[in-house]
Design a protein that fits this description.
Blueprint: H1 3-20, H2 24-32, H3 37-66, H4 72-102
Helix pairs in contact: 1-2, 1-3, 1-4, 2-3, 3-4
């Protein structure tokens, strides 16, 4: 593998790591590849995307858990639907950014 191909693979790994190891995966790759601008840019995008996912999940769970209602199942279902919608948006962003990394292009959103 050439250096450019390895950089692209590492950048893709940062985005995939954001799904399976939120915050930790991209942070490790960012620390490991800080001198490589392309990988660093993708690792930071993956890190902030996964931080958005984790903070959204915590907010959805805490808001849902804090409500008191007679119909607790309906509240639980609304929280789950919101969490799944957030996950779908984050997953779409990860897939698009991973595809851009594989093509050697910068992430969609530069943080």
């Amino acid at each position: 593998m050439t250096g450019a191909e390895e950089d692209r693979s590492t950048a893709v790994l940062a985005h995939v790591g954001a799904v399976f190891l939120p915050v930790v995966g991209p942070l490790v790759l960012w620390a490991y590849q800080r001198k490589n601008e392309f990988v660093r840019e993708h690792a930071v995008a993956a890190l902030l995307t996964s931080a958005l996912w984790v903070s959204g999940a915590v907010a959805a769970i805490s808001l849902d858990a804090g409500r008191l209602s007679i119909d607790e199942q309906a509240i639980s279902n609304r929280g789950l639907v919101g969490l799944l919608a957030l996950f779908a948006v984050i997953l779409a962003l990860v897939v698009v950014n991973a595809g851009r990394a594989r093509a050697g292009r910068p992430p969609v959103v530069r943080w």
